[in-house]
Design goal:
With 197 residues, the chain is α+β, with helices and mostly antiparallel strands. It has nine helices and four strands. The structure holds flavin mononucleotide.
Length: 197
């Protein structure tokens, strides 16, 4: 018999979880960040390619490196967050495929593809992993504040120079201050967004 998550779990992951911009003065230790990654890494990706790479920006020096890349509306929430995760992607993800997909020569399927195909493949799969990451963070009691309002080229130059890693999106992490939230915006109903054919 398949198991399902109870109401408390569904509330924690979805129904009461919100995107946070204001943070309580509560620490987030490195061991918890590792637990978030260790759950998120299990979510499925194409050929198990696992292209997501994460830089946890915590120190004041690292936050200052990130600051010039942020859109003005994202500066205060990011500088005050206990940790900001740079959710990034390894565009040469195929180098890890002999380890990650050992039962076939999956590296050969990808290594000669054009750069733009490698990039959108990495983007698709690292975005999925980024979503698993946020759900893992919520499951472990953290709040998230995802952001795409930043200059990717500046982040890449500051954090990934000399590599083939590129930033995807940023995600503030901490314990949110729910008193600062606006009311939740509506979502599309099933009839508006879906059809069964
Ligand atoms: C990929 C992504 C990029 C986002 N970029 C920004 C951003 O740059 N700045 C910001 O304030 N919010 C940003 N958001 C937050 C969304 O507006 C927010 O998650 C959405 O309105 C749902 O809010 P809720 O989770 O509180 O219901 C982003 C969210 C996602 C998932």
């Amino acid at each position: 018999m398949s198991k399902t998550l109870g109401d408390d779990g569904l509330d924690l992951l979805f129904r009461t979880a919100r995107t946070h911009s204001a943070w309580q003065d509560k620490p987030v230790d490195d061991a918890l960040l590792a637990r978030v990654y260790d759950l998120a890494k299990i979510g499925p990706t194409s050929a198990n390619m696992c292209p997501m790479r994460v830089v946890f920006v915590r120190s004041p020096a690292a936050k200052e490196k990130l600051k010039p890349a942020l859109d003005p509306g994202n500066v205060a929430k990011t500088m005050s967050a206990p940790v900001t995760a740079i959710i990034a992607m390894e565009v040469r993800f195929y180098e890890q495929l002999p380890k990650l997909f050992p039962h076939a020569d999956a590296k050969a399927w990808f290594k000669d593809l054009p750069e733009n195909v490698l990039e959108y493949t990495a983007l698709r799969n690292s975005s999925l992993q980024g979503a698993y990451f946020m759900l893992a963070a919520r499951a472990l009691g953290l709040d998230c504040g995802p952001m795409s309002g930043f200059n990717n080229a500046l982040v890449d130059a500051a954090f990934f120079a000399g590599t083939t890693i590129k930033s995807n999106f940023l995600c503030n992490l901490g314990h949110g201050d729910a008193s600062k939230l606006h009311p939740r915006s509506p979502r599309l109903d099933f009839e508006e967004a879906c059809k069964v054919v």
